[in-house]
Design goal:
The complex is a heterodimer.
Chain A (H helix, E strand, L loop, with lengths): L26 E5 L7 E7 L2 E11 L13 E8 L14 H14 L12 E10 L4 H15 L9 E8 L2 E4 L3 H6 L2 E8 L4 E5 L2 E2 L3 H42 L1
Parallel strand pairs in A: 4-5
Antiparallel strand pairs in A: 1-2, 2-3, 3-5, 6-7, 6-8, 8-9, 8-10
Helix pairs in contact in A: 1-2, 2-4
Chain B lengths: L9 E2 L4 E4 L3 E2 L3 E4 L2 E4 L3 E6 L2 E6 L11 E9 L3 E5 L6 E4 H5 L10 H4 L5 E10 L2 E6 L6 E2 L4 E4 L5 H5 L4 H10 L1 E5 L4 E6 L2 H16 L6 H14 L2 H4 L1
Parallel strand pairs in B: 3-7, 10-12
Antiparallel strand pairs in B: 1-6, 2-5, 4-5, 6-7, 8-9, 8-11, 9-10, 11-12, 11-13, 14-16, 15-16
Helix pairs in contact in B: 4-6, 5-6
Classes of the chains: A alpha+beta, B alpha+beta.
């Protein structure tokens, strides 16, 4: 690639896609979109489009994964062949296997696995369109889908990334910033319990920059958390409004 | 010692509900002396006990519960039953036959075959063992006619109503027999399909609007209206 790409962030501090350094991409969250799943959610995070379906608690297959004293959580993160500009092979790649693990481990602390021994929960994450930060958007949507399925949870898990482009710490990197930028720090977080469940770093940051990025990501998480709660409540608010209209007739 | 909610407020998992001398009730948990919600639902305070009536939940078997299930598999000395719970249930042959079971004399699939539906009671269940069912009581056993529907299991108490007021009203208004499985499966048996449809419509309405007030009146109205013009329900 030539070095002729535009500056990722201009003198006024405006990024390539027009955002300020600490601005999130637009977010759309929807709950209960798949009637065949026990719980589901759909998220549009910038240009990311991700669908999550949750099944269970149910019997674990294969049987040897079953735990006699607790519930197991299984995650599958998968990118559709058409989710990226160049066709992606539908077979699970090394990256997808890793992200499945990372998503599972960031959701696990929110659950009460000891309540339902010998069962398992399946979380299927399907990335329909990818534009950087899919793991974060996937965690946000997966937490919503879990809550929608009626599985008891300590808190909703929210995830958001921060990173560094052109010597500036910025929030919620998209594809170009992720690839050309200097660093990326995805953070998953449970706001009510103030607990971080995922913290990764790709690239290099000084300790000061890292701290700034972490705090920025956590602030971003809190903003998304508000939207998450709203999305979950919305599903029931609509039926409430309908009944009000009915009684007025 | 404060609470942080209004009565019947909609809460999401992780929301702080109360602090201090309160007791944690259903669908809540305690962390560092604070009570949080663990499911989406409506909060209620009852004698210092904070409860969340869940809007989304699944059925967890409890000994003594009446459930409706379907036969998944005919085994050597019993049946495997799907009771719409995290665990599959077992029904033993000796329980159904009411006499000692001998594999050489009895063909189990002639008693109950895969796909058959049964009303049964949970005989036992604990953390280490799958639920065992029993049909050795009047009213239990194979289902021969009627229609099935599913609701979210936590809505069953709402369908029953206060001291059974709701369900007995639907029964008398529609002339249907209704068996409520605590696992969220409901069997409606009436003299004709139209009656069954009406009863199911009423139950569906209860499920959809369980978190609103004045529901009994609306259900009564629905049933009365449908009776006045019977053509409409057939559509």
């Amino acid at each position: 690639m030539s070095e002729k790409h535009e500056k990722l962030i201009d003198k006024k501090g405006i990024r390539l896609d027009g955002r300020k350094a600490d601005e999130l991409r637009s977010l759309k969250l929807e709950v209960g979109v798949l009637p065949n799943a026990d719980g589901s959610a759909y998220v549009e995070h910038g240009k990311n489009k991700i669908l999550v379906g949750v099944f269970g608690p149910r019997e674990v297959h294969p049987k040897h994964l079953m735990k006699a004293d607790r519930m197991v959580l299984k995650c599958r993160y998968h990118m559709a062949p058409f989710s990226v500009p160049e066709r992606k092979s539908p077979a699970p790649s090394r990256r997808e296997v890793e992200l499945s693990k990372v998503i599972r481990e960031s959701l696990e602390p929110a659950l009460f696995p000891e309540l339902y021994p010998r069962t398992g929960i399946d979380v299927y994450v399907e990335v329909l369109q990818a534009d950087g930060g899919t793991r974060c958007a996937a965690i946000t949507a997966a937490a919503l889908a879990l809550a929608d399925s009626g599985i008891p949870m300590r808190d909703l898990v929210v995830a958001c990334a921060a990173g560094k482009v052109e010597d500036t710490v910025v929030l919620d990197l998209y594809d170009a910033e992720d690839k050309l930028g200097a660093a990326d720090v995805p953070v998953a977080y449970m706001p009510n319990l103030n607990a971080v469940t995922l913290l990764q770093m790709d690239g290099q940051l000084s300790p000061e920059e890292f701290e700034k990025a972490l705090n920025m990501a956590m602030e971003g998480c809190k903003k998304i958390y508000a939207l998450q709660k709203e999305a979950l409540k919305n599903k029931y608010m609509t039926t409430k409004v309908e009944t009000k209209e009915e009684t007025e007739e | 010692m404060p609470t942080f909610f209004e009565a019947k407020q909609l809460v999401t998992p992780g929301e702080l509900l109360a602090e201090g001398e309160y007791q944690a009730g259903e669908n809540t948990y305690v962390e560092a002396g604070k009570i949080f919600a663990s499911r989406i639902g409506l909060v209620d305070l009852e004698n210092k006990k904070v409860n969340v009536v869940a809007l989304r939940a699944f059925y967890v078997p409890k000994p003594g519960d009446i459930v409706i299930g379907s036969v998944i598999e005919v085994g050597f000395n019993g049946w495997t039953i799907d009771i719409k719970a995290p665990y599959t249930a077992m029904l033993r042959a000796s329980d159904v036959l009411s006499r000692p079971f001998k594999p050489q004399n009895d063909e189990l699939s002639q008693v109950l075959d895969a796909g058959d539906l049964i009303v049964a009671k949970i005989a036992s269940f604990d953390r280490a063992h799958d639920p065992q069912l029993t049909v050795g009581e009047p009213g239990l056993g194979k289902i021969t006619r009627g229609q099935l529907m599913r609701v979210i299991p936590t809505k069953i108490p709402r369908v029953i109503g206060r001291k059974g007021s709701m369900i007995s009203m639907i029964k008398t208004e529609t002339n249907c027999q209704i068996i409520l499985g605590l696992n969220g499966v409901i069997l409606v048996t009436g003299k004709n399909p139209a009656d069954e449809e009406l009863a199911m419509k009423a139950i569906k309405k209860i499920e959809d609007e369980s978190h609103t007030t004045g529901l009994t009146d609306r259900i009564t109205q629905l049933l009365k209206e449908a009776k006045a013009k019977p053509e409409e329900i057939k559509q």
